[in-house]
Amino acid sequence: ADETRLRILKLLMIREMCVCEIMVALDLTQPTASHHLNLLENAGLVKDRKEGKWVFYSIADPRTVKTMHKVNIL
Asked: pTM for this structure?
């Protein structure tokens, strides 16, 4: 698993976040953050919600992340 994507999942376990918050928290550029979020979304691990011009990301299914945590992936 990619370290950046694991770090994003850990952040989203805490709360829903917009791309700008993820960028700052992980010191990523916008294209890099969006790329990783897109891969996580395509894998079904995160979902997005649009609010005006903002896009917020959250864990798609908390049970999946809890399972990943139990087997020490996260």
From this structure: 0.86
Q: Is 65 helix (H, G, I), strand (E, B) or coil?
A: helix
CA distances from 49 to 16, 66, 72 (A): 10, 22, 28
Q: What angle do CA 21, 22, 28 make, to 5 degrees?
A: 115
User: What strands lie across the sheet with 17-18, from one edge to the other?
Assistant: 17-18, 54-59, 46-51
14-45 pLDDT tens trace: 999 999 999 999 999 999 999 999 999 999 99
Confirm if 10 and 66 have CB atoms less than 8 A apart.
no
Q: Distance between CA 49 and CA 47 in Å, rounded? A: 7
Q: CB of 25 within 8 A of CB of 10?
A: no
